[in-house]
Amino acid sequence: MSEESLKSRVENWMVKQMPIIQMHGGTSVVREANPETGQVVVELGGTCSGCGISNITAQNIQRDLYYEFEEITDVQIKVPSTGDMGADTVEGGRGGDLRFSTDSAEHF
């Protein structure tokens, strides 16, 4: 068996297990997958930004990654609408800085 990196295995898993994200115009990228610490960071984007069920999607991905990969001990799923990404991301494509979900977006 070839020694494929944890990041590659998680990326391949995301493509196979989560096609609904792409079907709905969302994107996902594995930002970090450290086999020594067990930490994995996945970022959702595209139409996931501002989607009402993106937090449920994130929870499902997190749960399934723990189940599928025994070496994973910490999973962080970053979704723009929850304020987990940097302020250079525009909220829902409408412009302006990303707002945390507890803050008012102050849109007209």
Supply Rg.
15 Å
Largest sheet: 3 strands, mixed
Proportion of beta-strand residues: 15-25%
Nearest-integer average pLDDT: 75
Unreliable residue runs: 82-108
N/C terminus separation: 56 Å
For this structure, what is the CATH homologous superfamily? Fe-S cluster assembly (FSCA)
The CATH class is identified as Alpha Beta
Could you give the order of the helices and strands?
HHEEHE
Q: Any idea of the CATH topology?
A: GMP Synthetase, Chain A, domain 3
Shape: globular
Could you tell me the number of beta strands? 3
Which architecture would the CATH scheme give at its second level? 2-Layer Sandwich
> What is the domain total for the residues?
1
Give the class from helix and strand content and strand pairing: alpha+beta
Main sheet strand line-up: 1-2-3
Query: What is the percent of helical residues?
Result: 25-40%
Number of helices: 3
GO molecular function, one term: iron ion binding
Domain NIF system FeS cluster assembly NifU C-terminal: 19-76
Region (Disordered): 80-108
GO biological process, one term: iron-sulfur cluster assembly
